[in-house]
Design a protein that fits this description.
239 residues, mainly alpha, 14 helices, 73% helix
Length: 239
Amino acid sequence: MILKSKVNKMKDSIYTIPISEVFEPMDSCPICRLFNTLEDRCVEYITGAAMMEPDIRIETNKAGFCIDHFNMMLKRRNRLSVALILESHLDYIADSVLTKTGTLSLPKGKSRAERMTESCYVCDTVNSVMETMLSNALRMWDKERDFRELYSKQEYICLPHAVKLLEKAPSGISKRNLKEFCDATLSLSAKYLSSLKEDVTSFCRSFDYRNAEVPLDSAKVKNSVERAVLYLTSKEPSR
């Protein structure tokens, strides 16, 4: 019981991020920054401090990981940590998943094996924490004028996160402030989209033979394709 309490406290500290600090850089999408910070902390946690914690290992054994988060773990160059996680995860699959009771005799609903191929401990954890963090951000916007001003100064809100915020807004923003919040969010996303379209068009035109001798004079134009992918998906494209 004491061990579980310590693990829970450790988890709470890992995923506690002051929202105002996330918004202070005012560079790119703040919700992407929040997600990336949580994701990085989660991967660091499970491959480091929590690697040998029985409670965490039970959770990771059941959920498994998606390829993106396996790649994140491997990039940390701690293959032993990943191997130890895989060792118990593979044991769990052999003992509890690929069995007649675990998989083959479940005609109704999804089998354990099928559910596992669609789950990821990092995705599940980060998405759960993100829901709470976004609710807190909405409440801050609704109650704190300073945070509203900070929000309005962001470079942009990417398309997926603009949609997410607008979906959650009615449950987190008071009716009297709801329209103002929606307008502010749409403005941040739309203004960046307009600028982004111009940069992508400039990049495309640079390949016209009539512009062959004209160098790309802006870093924004040169990386406009990557920035467009990031805006549309909230994910950095592979380079």
